[in-house]
# Entry
Amino acid sequence: MHLSALLTFPALAVACWGARSPINDASARTMARAGMVEEGRIREHVRKGGVWRDSVVHAMLDREWAAQQG
# Structure
């Protein structure tokens, strides 16, 4: 996550976001450690194995990333 933020924010100065499965607790912890905030859920966003699944979206704004960098 840190490398992708380093590449995203200086070049684009916007927001970095990612999506995960609601049952993927490891990804939730990783995104939280990176400073990303859970923004919400996209219902029935991905079809996998013939079943529609939700996605949980996390994001970090450029100013939040800059504050982490000191």
About this structure: Strands lie at 15-20, 37-48, 51-61. The CA atoms of residues 21 and 67 lie 28 Å apart. The longest helix spans residues 2-12. The chain has three helices and three strands.
